[in-house]
Design goal:
By secondary structure, the chain is mostly helical. It has helices at residues 2-13, 17-23, 38-57, 59-66, 68-87, 92-120, 126-151, 158-165, 169-177, 185-190, 194-205, 211-231, 244-261, 264-277, 282-309, 313-337, 342-361, 363-374, 380-406, 418-435, 444-452, 467-483, 490-496, and strands spanning 25-26, 34-35. A hairpin with a 7-residue loop joins strand 1 (25-26) and strand 2 (34-35). Helix 5 packs antiparallel against helix 9 (169-177). The protein is globular.
């Protein structure tokens, strides 16, 4: 939500007269009567991603020594501090500092919220729970777009200080809420704190599982982490590029990079301004930005349903890239053939909206679940943190370069800039088709086994794993020792444990 609030506010402030009175310059020839310096525009958009890039680099070592919850508490402190700095100044340099501090906090928020959800969720709900990241991004974007639209006609500092002020909501609520959730059980087991890890898993599962189902999940988790440790020589950044981890790291990096490759960062950062320089009035640009965020929210829920009940992760990502590429291509072609006409204006509105729906339903909803599933428990904070830092670097590059393409005083491409992102989406689709394995229905420990065995991407879906059978046999052995009963047949044991085919 914090990420969505900031993205919506930043996209709108650049077209807000009250903000531009303080940080822009008068220009009667522009819509709204004010312009914005390109360097300032580039830096306020890119410094947040630069800060997130820096914090994501250090996510691995921080989490290795301190855990997931302390990282989230630090993120709350930094985001609140960055927000306060921006509200209290009219100096460009201090704004840059605030954006950088906020970015460092956001990098930790994005990295560890996804890692924690992936490690805490049961297998059949993991994609849904991690995809809630995108749900809350859109809720934050809707709130931010509504608030900035309400203050857009104010001609004083309150026009931008009020939208910035709502960014205190998330760090305050989250810092309190963290007292009521346990540390990640997989992190605790990996640190050889099995007693605390078991207690954390019991807290997370509550009474949703029977005794045998809980024991099965616990044993599978412990056995998987133990097997992984036996194969590993060390834990650290270099381990990400050794053995089977190299393939997993490159896939994780690729999946996160496709968020930028889809063109989402361009539209997230510059939607309102992009519409304004492409022919819409300021009032229309603000209103259609609200509509786009609402469509994105609908898209996320649609995508969550598809991931849970209809498609696998791989299919979702491929469909998304194709749809997003076609939306970008339609925008660019119309801007080329019918520039300045009502047709071009209407196409821009329609296909920007369709793109936001499609991105949030497909790549936006599935990319973080897939990225966190692809990597091993032992290296998850290192690999996901590094991948997200790469994503933020690419986002920073996009944010820094985009104004040069769309600004009237530079290349003045406007909507023709979408040609670049159309081609990029089609390349991403090819990557998903040839390289991405299907992970739906697998526990994190099963995924570890499949990668360790070197199973090709196209065989992941049909390959049987051994770790669940081993955990079931261990559970039967323990129960037999305690009760003196004969072990049950494997199929019957699966049914008693409540394991549903295709969901675990």
């Amino acid at each position: 939500m914090q990420y969505g609030l900031d993205s919506a506010c930043l996209a709108s402030l650049q077209a807000m007269p009250g903000f531009l009175q303080v940080f822009g310059y008068p220009d009667p020839n522009l819509e709204g009567g004010y312009g914005i310096d390109r360097t300032f525009q580039q830096l306020i958009g890119s410094l947040l991603t630069l800060g997130a890039f820096l914090s994501s680099i250090f996510a691995g070592p921080f989490a290795h020594f301190f855990g997931r919850k302390p990282a989230l508490w630090l993120a709350c402190l930094l985001t609140a501090l960055g927000t306060a700095i921006q509200i209290g100044t009219t100096d460009w340099g201090v704004v840059y500092l605030g954006r950088l501090v906020l970015g460092i906090g956001n990098g930790f928020l994005v990295t560890f919220s996804n890692i924690y959800c992936a490690e805490a969720a049961p297998a059949h709900l993991r994609a849904v729970m991690v995809a809630l990241f995108s749900e809350w991004v859109n809720i934050g974007s809707i709130v931010g777009a509504v608030v900035t639209n309400a203050t857009s006609k104010m001609m004083d500092k309150a026009s931008y200080q009020i939208p910035l002020g709502i960014q205190f909501i998330v760090p305050v609520l989250l810092s309190v809420g963290l007292f009521f959730v346990p540390e990640s059980p997989r992190y605790l087991v990996n640190k050889e704190k099995n007693g605390e890890g078991r207690k954390a898993l019991q807290t997370l599962r509550g009474d949703s599982l029977g005794h045998e189902s809980f024991e099965l999940e616990w044993l599978e988790m412990v056995k998987g982490i133990e097997e992984e440790k036996k194969l590993a020589s060390s834990v650290g950044p270099l381990e990400m590029f050794r053995g089977s981890n190299l393939r997993r790291t490159l896939l994780c990096f690729g999946v996160i990079a496709t968020q930028t490759g889809s063109g989402s960062w361009f539209l997230i950062s510059y939607t309102t301004y992009f519409m304004a320089v492409s022919g819409l009035t300021i009032d229309e640009a603000f209103k259609y930005s609200i509509m786009n965020t609402c469509l994105g929210f609908v898209g996320v829920n649609f995508g969550i349903y598809l991931m849970r009940h209809v498609f696998g992760r791989r299919s979702i990502m491929m469909i998304g890239s194709l749809t997003q590429g076609l939306c970008m291509l339609a925008m660019a072609i119309t801007a080329t053939t019918s520039a300045g006409t009502d047709l071009a204006r209407n196409f821009l509105i329609a296909f920007t909206s369709l793109y936001m729906f499609a991105y949030n339903a497909f790549v936006g909803a599935a990319s973080y679940p897939v990225a966190t599933e692809l990597v091993s428990t032992r290296l998850r904070s290192w690999t996901v943190g590094s991948a997200i830092s790469l994503g933020y670097f690419l986002a920073w590059l996009t944010g820094f370069c985009s104004p040069y393409f769309i600004n009237p005083e530079n290349l003045d491409w406007g909507a023709k800039y979408a040609y670049i992102w159309a081609g990029s989406n089609f390349v991403c689709g090819a990557f998903f088709f040839f390289c991405l394995p299907e992970l739906k229905g697998r526990t994190l420990e099963e995924i570890d086994e499949l990668f360790d065995r070197g199973i090709p991407a196209w065989k992941f879906k049909i390959t049987r794993t051994n770790i669940m059978n081993e955990a079931l046999l261990e559970l039967q052995r323990r129960d037999g020792l305690e009760t003196g009963a004969e072990p049950k047949p494997l199929v019957e044991a699966v049914e008693v444990a409540g394991v549903e085919s295709g969901k675990m």
